Each structure stands twice: as structure tokens, then as C-alpha cells.
Amino acid sequence: MCHTDQSLFVRHHGCSITIILLYVDDILITGSDSRYIHQLIQALNVRFEMRHLGQLKHFMGIDFIKIDTGYFLSQQ
Asked: Residue 61 in contact with residue 75, Cβ under 8 Å?
């Protein structure tokens, strides 16, 4: 858990990082190890009812646009 934001969880393991951000009933999971993220999502699905809503486009009032080098974030 992040000490300044109780809805942000960060896991460092070796060279990989996993980030979970919770907001009410929304969850954003990202990181550098796609295999671990897939395992994490499967484990969460066993315990909680979840739906995958596809590619990230909008979260907490922020628009996410995928570009070659990552994401472009904007807020109108």
C-alpha cells in the first residue's frame, strides 16, 4: 500500500513492478510483468465478481490514449 494514497498498491519484485489503483468499484491493474498480472486477475476473479472492460480509455476523469511509447493522458 502507498503511504500517501490508501487506494494505490505497488508491488516491486526484482525488476518488475505491479500497480493496482482502486476507486469505488473500479480497479486499474498495470505493470511490467504481464504473466504475473494475468495470474493476479485470475486470483481476484476467484474471490470477487469482476469484468474486464477492455483497453483502458477513461479512468477517474482522465482520458488515456495509447501511443507507440506508452499512453498519452489528458483531462478536459
From this structure: yes
Q: Is position 49 within any domain?
A: yes
Grouping H, G, I as helix, E, B as strand and the rest as coil, residue 66 is strand
Cα-trace Rg, the chain: 13
Calculate the alpha carbon distances from 6 to 2, 22, 30, 42, 70 in Å.
6, 9, 17, 23, 26
Structural domains in the chain (count): 1
Q: Does residue 1 sit within a domain?
A: no
The domain of 46 spans 8-74
Encode pLDDT of 13-42 as tens digits. Answer: 999 999 999 988 889 999 999 999 999 999
Global pTM?
A: 0.77
